[in-house]
Design a protein that fits this description.
single chain; alpha+beta; Muramoyl-pentapeptide Carboxypeptidase, domain 2; five-stranded mixed β-sheet; two-stranded antiparallel ribbon; 14% strand; DUF5715; Zn_M74/Hedgehog-like
């Protein structure tokens, strides 16, 4: 099919816009993926310079394309990260130091949190992520952490879009914990630390085994996406944020979440 001059111009500006989004939201797309973590039929992520070099070394022809010869959008690849525990190893001690540096004085209870409107931002409603029904925390963060969370949510949705995956929102499962929240949590969970990073409004948890599907405005029936695929894409986004020194992240196996503290 012959492509018209108008189609060329439209494709050019579309590519520029997409590259701008990638440059702002994902300064370093996750490097190579683990074959053990991939499932048959799943795609791989947009290759970075390092990933491309690895492909060349292995004799694989790799390239980044946004449109094919017919002008159709090309789905980009998913790499995930080699190992989640290695990619996100930041311990509570490391995160606690950052929480104390950038956070607020620990909040006593919910009433106290609502009075801290000059220090804390309400994050209960956002177009880029969902907040779970909170039992042991309240939806407030310091502005620095709220901006980080918003950027993660937006970057996640952008990444899904350029990979041709149906849009989903990540789910926040824990945010600011008051002193009362921590005491109640310790009565049922002996492993819960008394000096939690969540006390300072700098820390939040994003689960990696549940997501909220975004309804297609055109009402198209699209193939369901597995949680593992969404987890791989989310891990790419989080790795980019961590590499950019915007946060510390711990991969929590038992809690099924990424434990994140702003830097």
């Amino acid at each position: 099919m012959k492509i018209t001059k108008k189609q060329y111009i439209l494709a050019f500006f579309t590519i520029v816009a997409v590259l701008a989004i990638i440059r702002c939201t994902s300064p370093k797309i996750a490097e190579g993926g683990s074959k053990e973590e991939m499932m048959p039929g799943d795609t791989l992520a947009t290759p970075t310079a390092t990933a491309l070099a690895d492909d060349v070394e292995k004799g694989v022809k790799a390239e980044i394309r946004f449109f094919d010869e017919k002008g159709n959008i090309v789905k980009n690849r998913i790499y995930s990260v080699p190992r989640f525990c290695d990619a996100f190893p930041d311990s509570n001690n490391v995160q606690l130091a950052s929480a104390k540096e950038h956070g607020v004085k620990p909040v006593l209870n919910r009433a106290d949190a609502e009075k801290r409107h000059k220090e804390l931002v309400y994050i209960g409603a956002n177009p880029f992520f969902c907040v779970d029904k909170l039992k042991r925390s309240t939806p407030y963060l310091v502005p620095r952490a709220a901006n980080l969370l918003g950027d993660i949510g937006q970057s996640f949705m952008d990444s899904l879009a350029i990979k041709g995956i149906p849009l989903h929102k990540c789910i926040v499962t824990s945010v600011l914990r008051t002193r009362e929240d921590v005491e109640r949590l310790r009565t049922t969970n002996r492993n819960a630390t008394e000096n939690s990073c969540h006390l300072y409004g700098t820390t939040f948890d994003i689960c990696y085994n549940r997501y909220t599907r975004v309804n297609d405005p055109e009402g198209k029936q699209m193939k369901a996406t597995g949680n593992d695929t969404l987890k791989w894409v989310l891990s790419e986004v989080l790795r980019d944020m961590r590499v950019a020194n915007r946060c510390y992240i711990k991969y929590e196996v038992k809690q099924g979440c990424f434990h994140i503290t702003v830097r």
